[in-house]
Fold this sequence. Notes:
Blueprint: H1 3-10, E1 17-23, H2 38-42, E2 51-52, E3 58-60, E4 62-71, E5 76-83, E6 90-94, E7 98-106, E8 110-119, E9 133-135, E10 139-144, E11 147-150, E12 157-165, E13 168-179, E14 199-210
Parallel strand pairs: 2-12
Antiparallel strand pairs: 1-5, 3-6, 4-5, 4-14, 6-7, 7-8, 8-10, 9-12, 10-11, 12-13, 13-14
Amino acid sequence: MNRMIRGAAAAMSGAAVMMTVLACGSGDEGTATTAASPASLCDGAATAGPVAVPTDDVTMAAGEAHFTTTLDDGTTTCVSVTPRPGSEPGEWDVSSDEREFEFNSGDAKAGLIVTIKDDSDDTDDDFPSTLPGVFPDAFVGIQTNGVYFPDGFHTQCTVTVTALSADLVSAGFRCADIEAMTDGPFTENAPATPSTAKKLVKAEGWFVARKN
Length: 212
């Protein structure tokens, strides 16, 4: 399965979330789920932690993501993704020949997917041994303003891992020049008037997933 298809297919299991969209200059402001200001959310840093990759599958019970996007329609938006209690925003899938972690949370208004996968027969995608460390082959999919932008070939985003264990996974990311996908994983309950943007000019933010 090629990278584009693998990333899009893996994205289809988005968890239910409670969203806060804090638009920078657009006037589109949702109900806040946190007392922090938009700047402190989207300009924050990924949580630091150890490298202790699990040997068994693990489901993360809590997490959050905050990121700022700029689209080619001139819209700049700060987005906070807060999974609902009882959802599963992160998951480790560990087998004999690969170890994969995926953060997946969002809805049609906004969401985030980050997948990092270490195949035993491919040294190009080894997990970093010291943190913070760049993971060279991450998939990133960003939903913003009702439009999905996937880095299908894993070339438009840089993901810097800051925690990688069974209890905590966190990373920061930067992306640029990603084309819009006509139909993405977060299409349910799509906005009545989604953005007409065709390209994600840039995005920057972070996520964290916790076991408890």
